[in-house]
Write a structure and sequence with these properties.
The protein is an alpha+beta fold and about 400 residues long. Helices cover about 45% and strands about 10% of the residues. The radius of gyration is 27 Å and the shape is globular.
Length: about 400
């Protein structure tokens, strides 16, 4: 079996040389023996990823996620190609094709994206989302690699959304979900009357997942609201209530597991924000004004002590908030973020670095110029109003209604 073959390979790499203290069971001795064996293997051009040690035999006996690979030029090129792809999807794929590491066909490119281990799933999403060839055809082939025959819509979405990270642009998401809906309908022809039904319901389920499991969403939809929301989806007919209840229960019990960006990589977290720059903010308890660096991203307003600081001083979720000019404030070019429901649900770091709840009934902020203030107000309003899943859902519903 595979483990025996790997042990044999290690033995060959060791040239059957006995290891010092190979019968000892002392942990420190075992560790030293493992280091000796691994060093010998590497001297023969092999790479050890993980192994367990048997002190009785003096050999590695259990191999989980272990591989012993002779370091030939092709393997090095493949590893280089993977690293390049994880930095820049377009350039990385170009390298892989130039080096003939991947055949230049949509089927082979899709298979490489789907099967290759340790690929950055954000980069996979970026590549699949591009609106030109061969990416469009690769997307279709990539989706086809998902075997979802006989799965519920939720389980199919779980598999699909785990294989890459959805990009942020609405047009890219639309193309990807269109491809998914077509594939699901092809593999499960008796579930829905049209691909449009699958598409709209898929978005509805994704929105439900966010509403139920995002802590910043205050009003959680009930199962009855979810059923009402999806009336008339199936070519003007209602979907079976039992089907909708089962989808709701599945999402409520277990949220979608989606690939996350590296939590320690704030460069990626705040990459390509809607707007960023210096503003001056009034304090909550103490009404003094302090200059902060603000970043508007993913329906949240973050503020930092400076652009060089990695941890935000505060986070303001913009859902259900309003923004307006603050004309009564004496400072010039001032605007206000406020809630009609009292205190804003936000958080900040206190003087000891602990996360605490904010105490703002509103955030009063002023810019350096009238033009800058107007631009911030415009961008914040767009973030508050925009829900791209909701917008695409409404657009597709209108399309279905016109067709029928």
């Amino acid at each position: 079996n595979r483990s025996s073959d790997l042990i044999a390979t290690i033995c060959i790499a060791n040239a059957c040389a006995p290891l010092p203290d190979s019968r000892s069971s002392h942990p420190a001795t075992q560790t030293r023996m493992a280091d000796v064996a691994i060093g010998r293997c590497r001297s023969y051009g092999a790479t050890i990823w993980f192994c367990d040690w048997d002190s009785r035999l003096g050999l590695p006996t259990r191999c989980d996620y272990l591989d012993v690979v002779r370091t030939d030029p092709k393997a090095k090129q493949a590893n280089t190609g993977r690293k390049k792809f994880n930095i820049n999807a377009k350039k990385g794929m170009a390298y892989l094709l130039e080096q003939n590491l991947v055949n230049d066909t949509p089927e082979d490119i899709a298979a490489w994206l789907y099967k290759t281990e340790n690929l950055d799933k954000t980069r996979i999403g970026e590549y699949l989302g591009e609106n030109y060839e061969p990416n469009l055809t690769v997307l279709k082939e990539f989706v086809k690699l998902h075997e979802i025959r006989g799965l519920s819509l939720v389980d199919a979405l779980r598999q699909f959304l785990w294989s890459f990270r959805l990009p942020g642009e609405a047009q890219k998401i639309d193309r990807m979900m269109e491809a998914f809906a077509q594939h699901y309908s092809d593999q499960n022809p008796d579930v829905f009357n049209s691909t449009d039904t699958c598409y709209v319901l898929s978005f509805s389920v994704i929105m439900l997942n966010t509403s139920l499991h995002n802590p910043s969403v205050k009003n959680k939809p009930s199962v009855d609201q979810f059923v009402v929301m999806n009336r008339g989806l199936d070519n003007g007919q209602d979907l079976p209530t039992d089907l909708l209840i089962s989808l709701y229960d599945s999402i409520k019990k277990e949220p979608f597991k989606v690939p996350e960006e590296d939590e320690n990589d704030l460069t990626q977290t705040f990459f390509n924000p809607e707007k960023q720059g210096w503003l001056t903010k009034q304090g909550g308890h103490h009404k003094n004004w302090k200059k902060r660096y603000f970043v508007l991203k993913d329906n949240c307003l973050y503020y930092f002590k400076s652009p060089q600081h990695k941890e935000p001083k505060g986070i303001v979720p913009l859902e259900l908030l309003q923004v307006r000019d603050a004309l009564e404030i004496k400072k010039p070019y001032c605007f206000e973020i406020y809630s009609n429901e009292g205190t804003i649900k936000a958080c900040k770091l206190d003087s000891e670095g602990k996360v605490v709840e904010g105490h703002h009934s509103s955030y009063r902020i002023h810019a350096d110029t009238e033009e800058e203030k107007d631009e911030w107000v415009k961008c914040i309003k767009a973030c508050i109003k925009r829900d791209q899943f909701y917008e695409m859902l409404i657009a597709r519903k209108k399309k279905v209604q016109k067709t029928h």
